[in-house]
């Protein structure tokens, strides 16, 4: 009997909370827009290639002295770049690319992920872990004879990569912006690294390289990392229903990176953001609304970061 009462109480409480949540959401939406909310879904069939036209891959070492809108500002390119470079089968006649036609690295490999984010009370956020994601990945090295292997012979495995990383809990914008180097540009809340949008060949990584359904793959460092904000990656962290996207990770300067939806629940494109691929407005930050700069993942190039607005650690 005692058990029954308790279950009933829990059920009742959930019902009350659920009802309240629905009601408050609906109300605030009506007041704000006075329209019926319909969620925008992305068109993934016509995406711009990074490195072509206005979507530039800039290289500071090669003389590009500053970042630019819609672009990725790299610090330099490695001399020994390798990777897939044939995107012909999912390139449209107008020169855009079709995500829905691009093969994926299949599989469901389970990892034992360790990842912890703590605030030390002295202004620091400390990220520790083993770099492995808390979701399944595709099979790497890419399986010989698979469709993905036809395009990308990525021979690398995924292995644990201990990380211990300290960033400011409340980062500030630097006087000058910084270029983005190869390797981790940030960490996803899944426990794995976020890489910028270029391959070591200096092309658009998401458009050319074979990724799994979470938008990730591995490289010569054996580190699993993301290049694309797939629905699976987003939903795994926080399923979006309305309004601004939830936090998806932290970049090396300490600023957060959120999913692709803006303040009014609109789907953001790179054109809506500044040259570092972010903007400033109040967002949920450690449990409260704070007016702070932040990055967004978008479905179009450069996908995550264009340059560092703060000081990369
Ligand atoms: Zn990569
Ligand atoms: Zn925002």
SSE order and pairing:
Layout: H1 2-33, E1 57-59, E2 72-74, E3 115-119, E4 124-129, H2 147-151, E5 163-168, E6 186-188, E7 193-194, H3 205-208, E8 216-217, E9 225-226, H4 231-237, E10 247-251, E11 256-258, E12 278-285, E13 288-296
Parallel strand pairs: 1-2, 7-9, 11-13
Antiparallel strand pairs: 3-4, 4-5, 6-7, 6-10, 8-9, 10-11, 12-13
Explain this structure:
- The protein is of the alpha+beta class.
- Helix content is 15%, strand content 18%.
- The protein has 4 helices and 13 strands.
- The protein has helices at residues 2-33, 147-151, 205-208, 231-237; strands at residues 57-59, 72-74, 115-119, 124-129, 163-168, 186-188, 193-194, 216-217, 225-226, 247-251, 256-258, 278-285, 288-296.
- Strands 8-9-7-6-10-11-13-12 form an 8-stranded mixed β-sheet, with no helix packed on it. Strands 3-4-5 form a 3-stranded antiparallel β-sheet, with no helix packed on it.
- It is globular.
- Bound molecules: zinc ion (2 copies).
Observed structural traits:
313 residues; alpha+beta; 8-stranded mixed beta sheet; 3-stranded antiparallel beta sheet; 13 strands; disordered N terminus; binds zinc ion
